[in-house]
Amino acid sequence: MASATESDLISGRTDSTEAVAGIAVGLAALLFALSLATFFDVVSVTGTLVGVPVVPLVGGLLILLGGAIITFGIGSYLGYVETTPSPTAGLVAAVAAAVPWFVAGVSVGSIMLGSGSAGGVVLGLVTGAVAFAATAFPREDLGSTLPIGALSILAGLVLLSGIIGPEWVWDLGWEQQASLTAGFVVPALTLATSLYVGWAAAKAYGGFGARGRHVGAYALVYVNALSIVAVLVILLAFTVFRGIPGLLTGAEIGLGVGPEVGLFGLSVQLPVSLPFVMNGVALLNDYQGVLPAIVGTFWLVIGAVLFAVPLGIGAAIFLTEYAERGRFTQAVEVATNGLWSTPSIVFGLFGFAFLIPRFGNGKSLLSGMLTLGFMLLPLVLITSREAMLSVPDEYRDASAALGVTKWQTIRSVVLPAALPGVVTGVILGVGRIAGETAPILLTMAGGTFVPGSQTVDVIGGFKFTATPPFVANPELLQATSALPYQLFALITAGVGLGDSVANPNDFRWATALILLVVVLSFYAIGIGARYYFRRKLQYE
Amino acid sequence: MSETTHSERTDTDSTIETTAGETIEQVQESWTDYKFQGEAKLTSEGLDVYYGDDHALKDVTIEIPEKSVTALIGPSGCGKSTFLRSLNRMNDRIRSARVDGSVQFDGKEIYQEGIDLVELRKRVGMVFQSPNPFPKSIHENITYGPRKHGDIETGLLARLLGRDDWDEAEELVEQSLRQAALWDEVADRLDDNALGLSGGQQQRLCIARCLSVDPEVILMDEPASALDPIATSKIEDLIHDLAEDYTVVIVTHNMQQAARISDQTAVFLTGGKLVEYDDTDKIFENPESQRVEDYITGKFG
Ligand SMILES: Nc1ncnc2c1ncn2[C@@H]1O[C@H](COP(=O)(O)OP(=O)(O)OP(=O)(O)O)[C@@H](O)[C@H]1O
Ligand SMILES: [Mg+2]
Question: Do B103 and B138 lie in a common domain?
C-alpha cells in the first residue's frame, strides 16, 4: 500500500504492477533507440517502419507511453498499485520537469504568436511554473509522473497530428539558410521525451521512494553508458561499411594468386590477393593500393616509440627517484605539460626547419619518426612519472632495508610495478601520433598517390660500412607516405585518379578503414602488453 | 665497550615528576649503570630525532648487547619505531626526519660521512610494522635480497657462465619460510603473488624475507601484531633461536611477550624518552621507576 507502514524488507508488489512499469521502461528504451537510429539515418523520418509512416508511429508511441506512466501514477495514488512514495518528488525532479515544459511553452507560443514575440516567453514561463508546482507539491507518485506523462502526450500529439510532419521546416530567420528540419527535430524531440519518461518509468518501476530514485538514477547512468558505446559502434560501423567495397576491390583467394613474400630467404606465394593493401600505385597496376602508406605508418610509429619511450622513462626515473622535489621538477612538469598541449603543426614546423636540413636535406622517414617521437615524449614522461609516483614507498623501503641499491630497486621493484601505467601512456600517445597528419605533411610525405617503389624496407636498408658512421640506411632518408597523410591528400587533391581506381570514394573510405585498423591494432598490442604486465603484479 | 659509563649525560628535563615523586634524572641514574654479559653490538649516545619541529626521540643512550633479544616497550607514539629506524638509518628516507647524536654498530659510528648504507642495511635487517611484501611471487620475495646481492644467480646469463644456484635458491626459500613458520601454509603455492596472502601470512613472509639475507642484527617492529597464538608462539620460538647467533631488537605492545622472549627490556614513555633499561626480569618484577611499574601493570599509558 502507499502508506508504507509494514516492513519494507519484502515488497508486496505483484508481478502485474511491476510489468506495467516495466513495459513503460521498455517502451521508453525503444523510443530512445529509435530516435538514435533516426539521428544516424538508419531510419528515415520520411520513410515507414513496419508499414506505418515513421513520424505518426513515433507520435502514437509517445502518447501511449505518456498514458501508461500517468495511469501508473494515478493508480499508485489511489492505492491500486503498491508503492512507497516520498511526500514529494523533490527539487531536482521539479526543475527537470520545468525545463522541458518551459521549452514547450515557448515553442507553442512562438508558433502561434509568431517568433520573437514576448508572448511565447510568457507562455513558457507559465507552463514551466505549472510543471514545477505540479511536480514539487503533490505526493511523489503523482509529482514524478503527471507533468512528464503530459509532456510525452503533448509531444506525441504534435507528431501524430502532423503539426510537425516529415517535410516540416522551421526557418530560423536570423541567419541565411539556417533552418530546423524534421530530420533533426523529430529525433531530438523523441530522444528528450523518451529519456524523461524513461526516468519517470524507472522510478515507478522501483516503487518510488528511495528505491525508486535509485532505480531511476541507475537507468539514466545505464542509458548514458550505452549511448556512448552506441555512438562508438555506429562510427565504426559507418567506416567499416563504406570502406569494405574499396578494400575488397580485385580481391582473390586461391593458390598462387597473391604476391610473393620473402621471409628469412624463403619466398612464399600468398594464397590471398588483396590489391588494396598489397599494391602501391603504378601505371600498369590492375588495381591501385596503399601498401607504401601502411608500411610507412607502421615504421613511423615504431620509430617514434623507440625514440620516445626510453628517453621518457629515463627522464621519469630521474625526476621521481633521483631529483629533489622542488623548483626544478616543477619547472620540468610545467614544460612537459605545455609540450603535450603544443599543436602538432608546430612540431611539424620544428621538424621541417630543424630536422630536415640535418638528415639529407629532404623529406624523410627519419625526420617523420623523430618529429612524432618528440610529440610522444611528453606524454610518455608524464604518464611514466605518474605511474612511478603511485608505486607505494613501502616497496622502496622494503628493498632498501634488505641492503639493495637504489638502482637495483628501481629496476626490479619500481619499474615492474609502474609498467602497466607506462604502457597505458604509450598506448594513448601512439593513438595520437599514428593519426597525425600535419607533422608528416611537413617532414616526410611524398605525393597523393604513392608509387609502390616508395615502400620502405627499413630492415633490409641497413648497410654496415667500415668507415664512420659505420651504419647507414638510405631507406630511412627516403620520402614515403603514411595513411593519415594519404587520406588527407586523397580528399583535398583527389582529382586525376589513375584509370584503375574505378571509384575514388571507395578508395578514400577504404584508406580510412585501413588507418582505423592499423591504429586499433597498435592499441590491441598495447592493451595486451598492459594486461600481461598487470597480471604479473596481481593475484587472482 | 660495555663498561662505558654515561657521565657526560645532561638531562634538562630533570624536573618532570613521576607518580612516585622521583625525578627522571634519578630514574635514569639507576639504569645507566646497567651492565650486561658480553659485547655491545649497537650503541646509541645522546640520540635525538626530529620530524620537522616535532622532537620525537629525546637524548636516548643505550647499549644493545650482541646475541641477545632486546625488547622495546612503551605506549603508542612514544618513538619506538623511530628509535628502531635510526639503528639502520632508515630514518634518512623520511624527508622531514633529522637525527642528532651517535649510533655505533660494532664500534663504528654509522652517522658519519662515507658510511655505506647498503652494506649497513645488509647487516642490520628490518621487519616493518606493517607488512610490505613486493607485488611478486612468494618465491621471488624471498630470493629478492640474495639475488640482488649476487649470492644467488639462476638467470640465463648465469647458466651460460656455468653458474646455476637453482638448488640453493629452493633451499633458501624453504629454510626461510620454515623459520618464519609459514612453509606449511604456502609450500604448494610458492609462485603465487604474495599480495594474495593474508595479513598475518604477509607479516611472516616479511620476516622470512629479512632472514633470507642473513643479517647480523634483526630489528623487528611488532612482528606478531597480526598473528594468531599458534603463529605467535612459533615466531617467539624463532626469535629465541635466532638469539643464539643474531642480535634481535624487537618492539612489542605485548608485555607477556616481552617478558617471555627478551633478555633485556627498554621502556620508552610518552615524549620520546627512554625511561628505564634493565634485565627483563628486573623490569617486570621490580622496576626502579613508579611510572614504568604503572605502565607495565596497565595503570598508565
Ligand atoms: N614519518 C613521520 N613524519 C612525521 N612524524 C612522525 C613520523 N613518524 C613518526 N612520527 C612521529 O614521531 C612520534 C613517534 O612515532 P613512532 O612511530 O616512533 O611511535 P611508536 O612508538 O612506534 O608508536 P606505535 O606503538 O604506535 O607504533 C609520533 O609522535 C609520530 O607522530
Ligand atoms: Mg611503531
Answer: no
Spacing, Cα A480 to ligand 2 middle (Å)? 64
- Rounded to the nearest angstrom, the distance between the alpha carbon of A452 and the centre of ligand 2 is 71
CATH no. for A291-537: 1.10.3720.10
User: Considering Cα of B125, then B128, then B131, then B133, what sign does the dihedral take?
Assistant: negative
Instruction: Give me ligand 2 centre to Cα B274, in Å.
Output: 15
Report the DSSP beta bridge partners of residue B63. B43
The rounded mean pLDDT for chain A is 83
Side chain identity, residue A504: P
Answer yes or no: do B148 and A394 touch at CB < 8 A. no
Nearest CB to B135 within list A404, A405, A537: A537
Determine, yes or no, domain membership for B1.
Answer: no
- Averaged confidence pLDDT in chain B: 84
Q: What is the dihedral of CA B205, B206, B212, B214, to 10 degrees?
A: -140
Option in B121, B130, B148 nearest A412 (CB)? B148
B96 lines ligand 1 (CB under 6 A): yes
pTM: 0.77
Q: What is the pLDDT of residues B265-300, one digit of tens each?
A: 999 988 888 988 989 988 888 888 888 888 888 876
B11-29: per-residue pLDDT in tens? 444 334 444 444 444 444 4
Conformational region of residue B250, where left means phi above 0, alpha means psi within -120 to 50, and beta covers everything else: beta
Which residue's CA is the closest to the ligand 1 atom numbered 6? B51
B90 touching chain A per CB within 8 A: yes
B91 and B188: one domain? no
Task: Answer whether residue B282 is part of any domain.
Answer: yes
- ipTM score here? 0.84
Q: What angle, rounded to 10 degrees, do the helices at A182-205 and A15-39 form? A: 160
Q: Which pLDDT score, from 0 to 100, does residue A6 have?
A: 43
- B246/B105 same-domain check: yes
Whether B227 and B237 map to the same domain: the answer is: yes
- Residues 6 or more apart whose CB falls under 8 angstroms from that of A341 comprise none
Whether residue B205 lies inside any domain: the answer is no
Q: With contact defined as beta carbons under 8 Å apart, do B255 and B160 qualify? A: no
More confident residue, A165 or A448: A165
In the structure, what pLDDT confidence band is assigned to residue A13 with cuts at 50, 70 and 90?
A: low
The full set of domain ranges for chain A reads 11-89+138-171+178-241, 253-278, 291-537
Enumerate chain A positions whose Cβ falls within 8 A of a Cβ in B: 392-405, 408, 412-413, 416-417, 536-540
Once rounded to an integer, what is the mean pLDDT over residues B130-140? 92
∠ CA A531-A532-A538, nearest 5°, is: 80
**B89 and B224 within one domain:** yes
Residue B97 shares a structural domain with residue B234: yes
CB B80 less than 6 A from any atom of ligand 1: yes
Measured N-to-C along each axis, helices A209-247 and A504-537 cross at an angle, to the nearest 10 degrees, of 130
- Shared domain for B121 and B239, answered yes or no, is yes
Interchain proximity B196–A413, CB inside 8 Å: no
Interface test with A, best of B84, B85, B120, B134 (most A CBs within 10 A): B134
- Tell me the per-residue pLDDT of A317-342, one tens digit each, with 9 for 90 and over: 999 998 888 888 899 989 999 998 99
B301 within some domain? no
Of residues A43 and A217, the one with the higher pLDDT is A217
Residues of A with CB below 8 A from B141's CB? none
The rounded percent of chain B whose pLDDT value lies above 70 is: 87
Interface test with A, best of B91, B121, B186 (most A CBs within 10 A): B121
Domain extent for B52: 10-132+215-296
How far is A398 from chain B, CA to nearest CA, in Å?
Answer: 7
d(CA A464, CA A462): 7
Q: Which of B88, B119, B192 sits opposite A401 (nearest CB)?
A: B88
Strand B108-109 and strand B124-127: pairing?
unpaired
Rounded mean pLDDT, A475-495? 77
Q: What is the pLDDT of residue A356?
A: 84
Indicate the number of domains in chain B: 2
| Same domain flag for B257 and B277 | yes
